[in-house]
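ARCHIVE CARD
Drawer: 12
Card no.: 0347
Subject: one protein chain, sequence and derived structure
Cross-reference: see card 0346
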Amino acid sequence: MSAESTPPRQASPVGGLGVAATLSPTPTDYARLEGLYEIQTVLARSIGIEQACEAFLPIVTRALSVRTAVLHDRTQGLYRAFTWAAAGIGQLELQGADDHARTALTCLATAASAPTQVVSRSDVLAGGVTDQRVVDRCFVTLPLSLVDGHVFGVFQLEGATGFDLRDLQFIGAVANQLAVALDRHHVRLQLEIARSEVEQANRRLRDLQTISKAALDGATLDVSLPLVLHVISAMFATDAAEVLLTSADGTSLRRHTSIGLEGADDANVAVATGRIAATGTSMVFDSLDELVGGTLRSDGIRSLLGAPLRARNRVTGVVYVGSRDLRGFSYDELQFLEIVADRIGTIIDNGALYDQALTSIRSRDAVMGLVSHDLKNPLNAIQLCTELFATDDPQLTKPVSIIKSSVDLMLRLITDLGDIGSIEAGHLSIMTRSEDALTLVRDAIEGVQAAASGKQLRLETRRPARDLVLACDRLRVIQVLTNLLSNAIKFTQQGSSITITISEAERGYARVSVEDTGCGIPEGSLPHVFDRYWQAQGTAHLGTGLGLAIAKGIVEAHGGTMSVESRVGHGTTFSFTLPLALDPVGLPIHAVADRVGPRVLVVDDEPNALSALSALLAEEGFVVETAADGLQALRMVRELAPDVMVVDVEMPGLNGPDLVRKVREDLAELPVILMTGNDNHVLVTAQNELRASYIGKPLKIDDLVSAIHRELAKER
């Protein structure tokens, strides 16, 4: 305790704290104990220390005659000085009291670095005593500290007259409570600072993630750099930010991207950024006025924080943030800008590589387009010459077949190269007409039926509830379907099935899906399946890697979308959408005009016979659906509700008679014609049990057509 005072009004031995007279319970002591309790209650509240002092000082002045009160508090780089004076006391006297307290704190506290923030407040002391000017001022200045002895402030009262021992005890008790309250406040302040630092660190981490993402995405500089500059300008709370890139010869800097700037940079900014680039080190310029003489523009940059950009061990430019007001930048901010500069350097390097890659791809596609056109001429000559070889010479049959298949393969490759070039250039030719979706699927299936039969695969079609008519280019859509079906056949195990589903999608669109039960595609490979020249690992020998990219380009040229879903070991589903054809009032067309004949479902496990029967019956005006086995036929009967079913008797798995028995469970009156080799047992079964007619093999199309019409007539 440090105390200076005039002689007390009542002499009492200061050191004799055990003297009974000084501790006897008088009414005054009870009043002060009550006051101390009130002060303790005030200081226990979760309010600011200045507000707490404003609340408890009137309690002090109620017990003591006080002219001025001073509180000095120093912690965490913050110095706070609060002064109160009774009304009528001049500023000069109040300043003297403040200086006295400041000198005492300097003597009592250990040496500390200069505070980074100073807060001073002055106010009227409620209940203070104003006397005539005193010659010998009486101050009681007490250190604020805890058990560790560390002094972090002082509490000072100036009495109108001298203080006695009980006064000093009361003031000491108040100072102790104030020290405890200030310590709690310091802890809260430290927690708030720590919380603020954590929040700032989290914000910077999020901002750095945004910048890093821009660096990894490989977007163009015109897209990524403005985003980065907005992030760092907000991060450092500056008015402007700029990225300058070095010239090809490395002798100058040119602006690439900036925000918050108009016109050319000031000379001061040019000098500062030039130094950063020349030295390859980060720099802080708290005042650019010192770099170059003269008057800066009113809207010019006054303070700047900059860092060099590097790529492949060389300086490629400079990034800086600037303020139009004088301000200081911290070392932490400098370090963080260096991290940001590293990310921007990566963005610039990736952007340059990306531009080079795009240029290379465009050059390659242009060359491939020219080469593909020029290659067709010699291939055409080769193809024509093969037609001149004698077809009856057994020694030439195999070589000619090899030449023809090789020419076909080369033509497909050249066509793919031409298509991918047209898609990239946006010149893919699309001639849309109204096309029946089911017919397109059926035509595509016919083209791959032989390959599917070679692996004993079932190609199943699920049709929509009502016929869908697409606005599309028939040949291009068949090209898409053929590619998807061919891929499904390649990757589906022998004896499995592939399902083609036609359905209505969102308003105005149809969806076609090709689902296989093959090996599936790994999740990490799914984002790349539509990339040009990309192939799944282990399948490089199965194609050029262009088919899916072309299919997606064709679908998108129609205004549709293509997607893929897959699970390893369960199979893959490719889906695409195409626009529906609309009538003159904008409503979807749900039927094709020439599809007016009866619907016939033909079931036969022999693909060639199935294809021939389908074509012949279609020429007779029937709407023909086909199934390659009994199980597929059973599903189609339930979905399509055909008018007549023509079934081969001998089929693996579910044979003809068993199929008819199951059909009768749901459709007892469906006309059925069995195709048989005149087995008497089958004929009897057909007529009696199955209620089906029959036709013998080999078939004559006229006989079959007549049988179908007879069955239809019976139904009517």
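Annotation on reverse: Residues 664 and 670 are 8 Å apart (CA to CA). Residues 1-27 have pLDDT under 50 and may be disordered.
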